[in-house]
Design a protein that fits this description.
single chain, 286 residues, alpha/beta, elongated, disordered N terminus
Length: 286
């Protein structure tokens, strides 16, 4: 598997050029947690609520209060149709968008496990389609999204999708769609691994005599702070680990357990990520 493309450093903080989107409209198909997080980022970034059409069978009160169009007739030629429904709902949802296929509307999918070929089959082979994999920290503007487009997606389409998704965090581009299963396993599912780390770190603290609330507060702040430090520091995480490990100290004692090649993090996370990637491939095969 190859590496990330030339934008692997992860672009963030660039404002979306909303002129065309505001003029032609944006359709959001599905507005659950991820769709709502993106919608909040777009509105905060200056996209007019009147330029957004939401299609969702159960829109939240928050969505209905934003001033966007909800479950009404769509514009005839929107700039973007963003698909944010669950994979198992795709069969029912996509036919509603078929009339927008093979035209000027850019389709962006954030649905896990649904390959570009499935969208081309439903919408038409001439439809520009970009597949994206965001993750749940998008809800606090700290997500990271990987993108790959089909042959109909131009550089302008990629830039438009990139700007759109930068509203909720960093964006990277992939070299081929085959990398998406690994992205799903690392960053798409990865927040759950970190949440479980917090759970187990706090539980271990309780085992050593800490009150549960204190142990959880320490675990949350430690993981959150270390993650921020890893993103901001010039050193790589390996060097950061070395920096806080005194010879024969407490951290070294713990790392000798965690870094065991047989039953520590290296072996455990390789198995976990492989299991997630394999499941992603299964979902993609339908």
């Amino acid at each position: 598997m190859g590496g990330l493309g030339p934008k692997h450093e992860g672009k963030r903080g660039c404002a979306m050029d909303m002129t065309e989107v505001a003029a032609r409209g944006l359709v959001l198909l599905g507005c659950g947690k991820m769709g709502s997080a993106m919608l909040a980022g777009w509105l905060k970034g200056g996209l007019p609520p009147g330029a957004v059409w939401v299609l969702d069978p159960y829109p939240s009160d928050w969505v209905k209060a934003q001033g966007v169009h909800v479950n009404v007739e769509l514009p005839k030629n929107p700039a973007i149709a963003l698909v944010a429904v669950k994979p198992q709902m795709m069969g029912d949802a996509l036919p509603k968008m078929a009339a927008l296929g093979n035209g000027d509307t850019l389709f962006v999918s954030v649905a896990a496990g649904t390959p570009i070929a499935a969208f081309e089959a439903a919408l038409g082979a001439q439809t520009p389609i970009i597949r994206a994999m965001p993750n749940t920290p998008a809800a606090v503007g700290r997500g990271i999204t990987a993108l790959i487009g089909n042959d109909q997606s131009t550089a302008e389409h990629m830039a438009l999708a990139e700007g759109l998704l930068q509203a909720v965090g960093q964006v990277v581009r992939l070299q081929n769609e085959g990398q998406m299963d690994a992205v799903t396993a690392v960053s798409g599912s990865g927040p759950a691994y970190v949440f479980h780390l917090i759970e187990t770190l706090a539980a271990a603290g309780v085992d050593e005599g800490l009150p549960p609330e204190l142990a959880m507060a320490l675990a949350k702040a430690t993981v959150g702070g270390a993650g921020q430090l890893a993103e901001d520091a010039e050193e790589d995480p390996g060097q950061l680990r070395v920096n806080v490990t005194s010879p024969n100290g407490t951290t070294q004692a713990a790392l000798e357990v965690l870094m065991s090649e047989t039953d520590g993090f290296p072996a455990l996370l390789r198995r976990a990520v492989k299991a997630a990637a394999d499941r992603s491939k299964e979902l993609g095969r339908g």
